[in-house]
Amino acid sequence: MTTAWTADHVGSLAPDAASLTAARKLRGKWSGTGIHDTALWGLCQGSGSRPYQTIVDLSGPAYKCSCPSRKFPCKHALSLLLSWSAGDVPAADTVADFAADWLGGRAARAEKQAVPEAKSARGAGAAADQRRARVTAGLADLDIWLTDQVRTGLAQSDRSIRAFETVAARMVDAQAPGIAATLRQLSLATTHSEWPRLLLREYARLHLLTAAHARLDTLAPGLRASVRTHIGYPTPADTVRAEPAVRDRWLVLGIRTTTEDGLYTRRVWLRGRTSGRWALLVDHHYGSPAFPNDTPAPGFQVDANLHFYPSATPLRALWGDRHEDIPEPFTTIPLHVAGSPGGDDVAGIPDEATDRNGTIAVALAEQARALGADPFLRSWPVLLAEVVPVRGEKGWYIVESGGDALPVSTAEGEPWRLLGLSGGHPVTVIGEWTVDGLVPVAALAAGTMVDVGVVQGNPMPIRGGIEDSASAELVSAALVGTARRQADLSGLASPVAAATTALTGDRAAVLLESIALQDCFARGGVSATSAERSAAAADDERRLLPVAAGARLTHLLADNSPFLDEWFALAGPRDFRAPDGMVSGLLDRAKALASHREPLLRLAGARGRWLAAQHPGWKSLVRAAAEDESVWSHGRAAERRSWLSQLRQRDAAAARTALAASWGTESGPGKAELLAVLADGLSLDDEALLETALDDRRAEVRRLAADLLGRLPDSAFARRMAGRAAAWLSFGSRPVRPQLVTTGPGVLDEAARRDGVGDSFGYTAYRADGAPDLSTEWLHRVVAATPLRHWERLLGPAEETVRAPMAEGMRGPMIAGWSDAALAQRNPEWARALFGAVSGTDARDADTDKLRELFALQPEADQVRYLRGLDSSWLAEIESMLRAMPHPWPGPMAEHVLRLLTERAQLCADRPGAPSLVPGSYRTLFRAASAHFPVAVAGMVSGIARRCADPYWEQAFDQLAHDLIDRKTMLEELQ
Predict the structure, then answer these.
(1) pLDDT exceeds 70 at position 460
(2) Which candidate, 806, 838, 804, 841, places its Cα nearest to that of 819?
(3) How far, in Å, CA of 869 to CA of 13, rounded?
(4) What are phi and psi of 348, to 5 degrees?
(5) Would you say 251 and 273 are in contact if contact means Cβ atoms under 8 Å apart?
(6) Are 532 and 403 in contact (CB under 8 A)?
(7) Which of 164-178, 196-210, 391-405, 844-858 has the lowest mean pLDDT?
(8) What is the 3-state secondary structure (H, E, C) of 895-939?
(9) Are 512 and 150 in contact (CB under 8 A)?
(10) What is the C-alpha separation between 372 and 520, in angstroms, rounded?
């Protein structure tokens, strides 16, 4: 039996992260599983009555599943492989019938393909000759067009998209798709500020390709293959696999996926552990990124053969035979030795430089060698060990310890993830050297490969390139046109000028060939520049966030998942620090998600502060360290508030003293924010400062101070309010069951205004005769700030008080005031009495938010008792009140909700088509349940799904079960 694969190996096969997450949710849904030799199979219960039949041929691997998914492998195949890796799949003596049928057909097809029908050599040769003739004719037309552009002058030429598309269409007809793709990109070059130089460079490259194709038979075999590839001749896979195999332990260093017009392209960079040889795997798929799963994830190595495409610089390759089934992780990248492939001595490079493997000098020498063999190359992979990325005033650089540096291309975006990963410390960088500089692909830090690519779109192959003053004269002549002005070639680099003396013929052709020579010389002769390293980020000694939890957080943030609150609540007390490679992503999300900004910044920690200080858009996120005392005197507003809040949690008195000392110098807008910090741990010791705030000029500061003082029933403010309540309210003249009436006031005195009674911010909810009723608003304010025990002395317990008879028009402000007082003074007895009084009124008159707050203040047992007394016709009200319950909802409450939803599902089965009974009517309740149900009820939910007669209800319960299992896994990852 084949050795079980690891979970990491299975994860590397997933087409995307969502598929892997969905696969993990299918735990416990398998039956009839088995493994025999290289055959793995099982039955997975889905939303339908018949389980999905899933088969995996481990020798491929290849997959078959009866589900409708178009992903390969689908989530069922991934789940089956995960079950096998966990040891949950038993060995079998024979293959299940449904698996044997597919495996047998697969074997028969393989046998048939092994003995293909012999093609007519004459027919194949004729087709090849015909294609070459069409390409030759097309390139001849192209060359005429190119020289015409330079002869008449670039300034006068038609540079519209339509013009380039017309020529590209001719190349498609000529079966030269590589040329057509380049032509379609030329319109982008015209938008660049240096478009004449870029356009002339690309024209020269195309002219050189046409000249090379005209002499194809005289070229060396390797260069001949390269020219054919650049033009767009196909190279059959069988031809590639006929090339000699190169066996090594191939390290998977980086993967990048791009898309253009619906065509997805995946590029995978490999490097031989023993040989140090580079290899590039390229796969295409139209419509979706469903690529073959034959390549391990970055960070894994596999002993295998590679077959390289014929080329002057063999780089692109195909997998050959594997010599081991399970890829192994690696934590180091050996640097190849001089004399090995890719490390031979280079003319003009001293031996001691060549021996310094992984350096900038060797990387530039290797790309110069590759460019010399194939002048049409646009990029070449590089490996730079122990380098530091730097963002300076002149741009981005990769810097070695001695100060040698390479510029980093920012044509596709700035490499903030690489900078965050490094933090100013050395890392090993894998990238591509282009005319614009280094394009980072991946990096090795602390033994882990990290993707540091900046885009997932379609990179523009036509870039700005290096500055080359030697070609300025030729560009100027091309702008005017060689028909009007002959180019002076004497200003070219000496070796190039010497080579151009042999060029004869049409002036336009000579200019294009001279530009091609100069461009190749300039690119091959690039040397290192110099740059200084910046100060490194401070160390963060906190516990590192587990890998699985970090991956989970990345997906939760991308989806703005409702599970984020629970994730942060559990992770917060553990005080994790995020992996360095995640820091840039956390800062980016912190900028966008204000509700989760602070926990994200805590996760980013010292590395996040260091990185944010260098990013123009993230500087506002910088938070000084909590122990930095200078923050209070010199920090920005957000930093000062955060500092005061943290101090308040550690030492309430110190925070109050600090705020009181600076109160007179605080800005108006900042006072309210700082005063709100006192709400945490509020006590009578804060009374003096709050009384001072009542005299502030800003209404929002006075109102906040009054609200905070209203939470202190023993304060002088509360006594003043109780005095006003006693003066403004009376019991009328009837001796039995006295009626509460109001006598007061028509005009507020200055003391009442100081206490915030008259601060209505221009709006009042009460009206009389169509005009604002200020007296009723004032009554509401006074009652809200009066201690509840005042009413208990006058009218009795809360249950009696809220039902006391009142004059017409008084019940509204009195109930509203008492509700505000109960919430401010955190009195569950009053909350229960008021909730009963308000919920018993007409729903149209009830304040739903206030009702929910009163419900939240009651003991959990009372909450559960009330909600369990409601049947399924009250599901909307239940859903509203459930939002006030603590997370996770109590088990009995979850069971009651499930029971009510099951009743709805049964009614739907009995009355199909009823709009109010479809599960879509309860989607928000299902969504809330997935975030707040205790995860222990997942099994119960799955059981309900299996008993549902309606398939849509079954699917809804299945999704709920999946979400609960997902949350359970999430919680386990944070342990």
Answers:
(1) no
(2) 838
(3) 50
(4) 90, -5
(5) yes
(6) yes
(7) 844-858
(8) HHHHHHHHHHHHHHHHCCCCHHHCHHHHHHHHHHHHHHCCHHHHH
(9) yes
(10) 8
Phi-psi region of 762 (alpha: psi -120 to 50; beta: other; left: phi over 0): left
| Torsion angle of the four alpha carbons 832, 836, 839, 840, in this order, in degrees rounded to the nearest 10 | 180
CATH of domain 367-451: 2.40.50
Question: How many CB atoms neighbour CB 651 within 10 A?
Answer: 13
In terms of DSSP H, where are the helices of 155-220?
Answer: 161-173, 177-189, 195-214
> Distance between CA 883 and CA 703 in Å, rounded?
28
Domain segments of the chain: what residues? 7-113, 126-230, 237-329, 367-451, 469-529, 547-707, 710-858, 861-975
Residues 6+ apart with CB under 8 A from 919: 905, 908, 926, 952, 953, 955, 956
What the block records as the tokens of 278 is 């580079």
Phi, psi of 136 (to 5 degrees): -60, -45
Global pTM reads 0.80
Alpha-carbon distance of 659 to 664, in angstroms, equals: 9
Q: Is the pLDDT of residue 675 over 80?
A: yes
Is the omega angle on the peptide bond into residue 236 within 30 degrees of 0, that is, cis?
no
Please tell me what DSSP assigns to residue 628: -
Distance between CA 613 and CA 946 in Å, rounded? Answer: 54
Q: How far apart are CA 102 and CA 940, in angstroms?
A: 36
Local structure of 360: helix, strand or coil: helix
Closest CA to 20 of 59, 60, 77: 77
Beta bridge partners of 389: 398
Q: If residue 257 lies in a helix (H) or strand (E), which one and from where to where?
A: strand 245-260
Rounded to an integer, what distance in angstroms lies between the CA atom of residue 398 and that of residue 387? 6
DSSP string computed for 668-698: HHHHHHHHHGGGTT--GGGHHHHHHHTT-SS
In whole angstroms, what is the distance from residue 724 CA to residue 134 CA? 99
- Count CA atoms within 13 Å of residue 140 on its CB side: 8
Phi-psi category of residue 957: left, alpha or beta, with phi > 0 → left and psi -120 to 50 → alpha: alpha
Q: Which of 77, 78, 85, 84 is nearest to 102 (CA)?
A: 77
Segment 748-780, tens digit of pLDDT: 888 988 988 887 544 567 777 777 788 888 899
CB 754 within 8 A of CB 747: no
CB 820 within 8 A of CB 784: yes
Distances (CA, A) of 300 to 81, 285, 342, 448: 18, 24, 22, 10
> How many separate helices (H) and strands (E) can be counted in the chain?
40, 21
Four-residue CA torsion sign, 742, 748, 751, 753: positive
* Burial group, residue 902, by CB count within 10 angstroms (0-12, 13-18, 19+): middle
Peptide bond into 61 cis (omega under 30): yes
Q: Is the pLDDT of residue 107 over 70?
A: yes
Q: Which tokens is 489 given?
A: 């070639």
Span 164-191, pLDDT tens digits: 999 999 999 999 999 999 999 898 888 8
Pairing type for strands 741-742 and 729-730 reads antiparallel
Query: What are 412-417's contacts with CB under 8 Å, separation 24+?
Result: 412/439, 412/454, 412/455, 412/457, 412/459, 412/460, 413/454, 413/455, 414/454, 415/389, 415/440, 415/452, 415/454, 416/454, 416/584, 416/611, 416/615, 417/450, 417/451, 417/452, 417/454, 417/581, 417/584, 417/585
Question: Across all residues in the chain, what is the average pLDDT?
Answer: 87
**H/E stretch holding 382:** strand 380-392
| Tokens (6 digits) for 395 | 């741009």
Per residue in 937-960, pLDDT (tens digit) is 999 998 998 888 888 898 899 999
pLDDT at 102: 85
CB distance 175 to 131 below 8 Å = yes
The tokens for 776 are 């009723």
Q: b/e per residue, 326-335, with b = 16+ CB within 10 A? A: ebeebeebbb
Q: Across 19-139, where does the E strand assignment appear? A: 30-36, 39-44, 52-57, 62-65
Under DSSP, is residue 161 helix (H, G, I), strand (E, B) or coil? helix
Residue 376 burial by Cβ neighbours in a 10 Å radius (0-12, 13-18, 19+): buried
Q: Would you state the structure tokens that stand for residue 439, as one six-digit string? A: 């394009």
